[in-house]
Description:
Layout: H1 2-16, H2 21-88, H3 90-95, H4 98-106, E1 110-116, E2 122-127, H5 143-149, E3 154-155, E4 159-160, E5 166-173, E6 179-185, H6 187-195, E7 203-207, E8 213-216, H7 219-223, H8 232-239, E9 245-250, E10 256-264, E11 269-276, H9 277-280, H10 282-329, H11 344-386, E12 390-395, E13 400-403, H12 407-411, H13 415-420, H14 423-426, H15 429-446, H16 451-456, E14 459-466, E15 472-483, E16 489-498, H17 500-581, H18 587-612, E17 618-620, H19 621-636, E18 643-649, E19 653-655, H20 656-677, E20 684-693, E21 697-704, H21 721-732, E22 736-740, E23 745-752
Parallel strand pairs: 18-20
Antiparallel strand pairs: 1-2, 1-6, 3-5, 4-5, 5-6, 7-8, 7-11, 9-10, 10-11, 12-13, 12-16, 14-15, 15-16, 17-19, 20-21, 21-23, 22-23
Helix pairs in contact: 2-6, 2-10, 10-11, 17-18, 18-19, 18-20, 19-20, 20-21
Amino acid sequence: xxxxWSAIRIRLPRFIRRxxxxxxxxxxxxxxxxxVFLTICISVIWFIHQTELTSWRDRQREAxxxxxxxxxxxxxxxxxxxxxxxxxxxxxxxxxxxxxEEVLDESPAFFEIAIVDRxxxxxxxxxxxxxxxxxxxxxxxxxxxxxxxAGEKYYTTVQLSAQNEPYLIFALPVRNGGVIAARVRMDVxxxxxxxxxxxxxxxxxxxxxxxxxxxxxxxxLVLNSRSLADSPEFQAMLQSPDNExxxxxxDFNHRRVVSxxxxxxxxGWILVAELPATEAYATTLTIGSLLPxxxxxxxxxxxxxxxxxxxxxxxxxxxxxxxGAARLGEGDLGYRLIVPRQDELGDVMLSFNQMADRLESExxxxxxxxxxxxxxxxxxxxxxxxxxxxxxxxxLSLQTLYLSxxxxxxxxxxxxxxxxxxxxxxxxxxxxxxxxxxxxEVLARASQMxxxxxxxxxxxxxxxxxxxxxxxxxxxxxxxxxxxxxxQPYQILGVTRDISKRRQAELDLRALNExxxxxxxxxxxxxxxxxxxxxxxxxxxxxxxxxxxTSLREKEVLLKEIHHRVKNNLQIIGSLLSLQAxxxxxxxxxxxxxxxxxxxxxxxxxxxxxxxxxxxxQIRFAGYLQSLVDSLVKSYRRNAxxxxxxxxLDDLPLTLESALPCGLIVNELVANSLKYAFPDQRAGxxxxxxxKDGVSRLTLWVADNGIGLPADLDARAAxxxxxxxxxxxxxxxxxxxxxxxxxxxxxKITFPYRI
Length: 755
């Protein structure tokens, strides 16, 4: 035991140290091969499994559909036979009972056929063996009787006769509420189920909607009334379209099987074809056991070959690189590697030799730089000793390490005298306290700064310095840290210069700024007083504006009242003209009175629109024209629907100066059309248009499809009051009148648009 323990202790460090490059690479390659191995195995097995699954599913589905069609055809033939008997009616079957015997002889699938009326009375019955359906004590209570009498087809489950022959009861409703029923021989069902073969141990069975087995390859399952009602797969079959379902389940013998289901015609039964999973997936299981072993053998051979080549191609050159790096680390800068091949590792070895060349040349350059540095330090000391500013060097405890001779000009002390003084004697008490606090803060921030920030950052402080003659002066000191090899600050380098003159200039500038600030404050006070007066003036202006708005609203109300009263007065004038017209029997006088009334009404309508509008200076002319024309049509036509009025109007505003002439013109033109264009109350079309033409022109037109104007009539030279009024109003608008005589009469007036 002691020897074994000693061997373990000797070998133990080899296992606990970190893995070698070869082990790492082999682990990586092994991981890659393992991933490829698993991917190939899973992909191949999954593909074979899916192919095998699809093949068996198609074969099972084909067998199930063929069997379902055979059974459905058998049931449909029997159903058609019973339906044909039911069509003849109860009376004919009762008078000719030999019909049922003929059907029974020609249809060997029937054990028994019976026809009963709606009360359960047997009308006719024929059977090959003992009658079962016509038991008078059980017909009224039989499920097939009251189901078929309610108008529904009825199928029982498969039962066995006294001779152990399978049958089912099938019933159909007939006319007058009767029922025709039959016991149907179901040997064909068992025969079809038994004749289906797929695979070595596949099976087929039929279940009804309640899950009860009607037929099975194993007849004992039918005799024992086995059921799928509690099976979740059976519920999935019921919920699937056409009962088409595919999946795996446990069969009646507790084996895992692959199942396919389909509906059997209109019977409501479901045919299920099953195959044991071990047989369905036999190829998958075989490939799954052989493929991994073969791939593992191939992977082992590949890894062994890779390991041999890797040692020759990779590891040996790397060992040479490691030895070469050790020689360089020991200071042998002339050592070079022999490059065996021109590949990636050969390039690395070549780069190693180039690096060694650079190291050797850099070592020579560093020796030269060291000589130059010593010379530059000597030059720096010479410059520091002769600079006008004081250059000093202190450690972090503020002990002076170097002080340039220029301190004599600044303070009157020699370098040796000044270096012997502590910082508290160099500065005034207030400046010393300020400098100590400043240096503590700088050192605290330095601990949080990076090396680059420490190398580039500097701090500036203004202090009051004491001189040898007892006077004081203001000096500006710029400091920065010197860093050791670890990048940590260990000394402070500073430059101090006299800023007394600049300080005095700043004091003078501050005094001047105070004077300017006083003058600005005085001017600000003056502006504040001026601002208060402006605010008061603005408030008075706002009050005046409010009074003007109130006055304007009062004038608007007054103007609306004026329009309202003008409208009322014009209506009174129209009423007076109407009263005056009643005293005359002269048609011309009556017509003159009516024309005057229309003109007054058109003016009154404008004032009414202005009174109703929010804008007392303008009127929406389209609405006004529609109201005016509708009023004229009702006034001149007994049946206003005889004349169809078409409007082509832009909803544009017009001033009162333009609206009044336009309204009177439309009044005259529409009145003339209604009086003369459609004689004898004939029907016609009247078009009223108002459009904007271009940017600053308006077009107003009235057209009809009546009898038109006389050929010798010159409208512009006519002596009638209406045409004179139209010409006068057109001139008042600065407009142009255009008359067209095609397809009736058309009057167009174009005038400037003024808002």
